[in-house]
Description:
The protein is an alpha+beta fold. The protein has helices at residues 12-17, 28-35, 108-122, 176-195, and strands spanning 58-61, 67-72, 75-76, 80-81, 85-96, 125-129, 135-142, 145-152, 157-162, 166-169, 201-207, 213-219. It has one domain: Tetrahydropterin Synthase, Chain A (2-Layer Sandwich). Strands 1, 2, 5, 6, 10, 11 and 12 form a seven-stranded mixed sheet that branches. A three-stranded antiparallel sheet has the order 7-8-9, with no helix packed on it. Strands 3-4 form a two-stranded antiparallel sheet. Strand 8 and strand 9 form a beta hairpin.
Amino acid sequence: MQDKPAKLPLSSSFTKNSSIGRGKQLSPFSAFAFARPTANLNSPTSTSHFPNMSASYSVRLTKEHHVFSAAHFITFNRDVCERLHGHNYRVNVVVYGPLDENQYVVDFIALRDELKALTDALDHRMLLPTGHPLLSVAPRTTDHGPEIEVVFAPDGRRWVFPAGDCAILPIANTTAELLARYLGEQLLTSLSRRLGTKPAKIRVEVDENHGQWGVCELTT
Ligand SMILES: [Zn+2]
């Protein structure tokens, strides 16, 4: 025959301080959480445990839908001109800057949407540079409608494209590096228009062929 379990005295100090039991008592951790000061949204370092340590911030966007498929050719070594070909480009972006009153560098949604608009504008286009010293890129209208005639001066090669199929870019060559710069400048302009402020620094990365990235950093 088992002894009846002894009744433990329920003193008030036991119920208040023990972490064992089913009562809604605060654990040491939840008590600490309640004790933490509320973040002051106007002071980026107000909750820092290291107020004297400098910090820098950035946001990075590497989304699968920031892509575009386009045709191009580049020239190099002065008189060498590639054959017309295409790439499935991908674009990543990093925006650097201080935290604003919302505690972020830039609104992710604004950055995402503005970059998507830029990549969409290049998608399924023939990329043509207007700043190339040896390439003439000339709009004209014929019986076939608006066209762009392109001539490479060193050997006289000539291409004609429907104007609506082309993206005319104010760059010297359609390298991944200069495409990154073009996108960066356009992105700074569109973000500035949308948000009313310009990021302190932006980094745009353009992949033209499965890991061959051209990168441009712009500091405003
Ligand atoms: Zn190429």
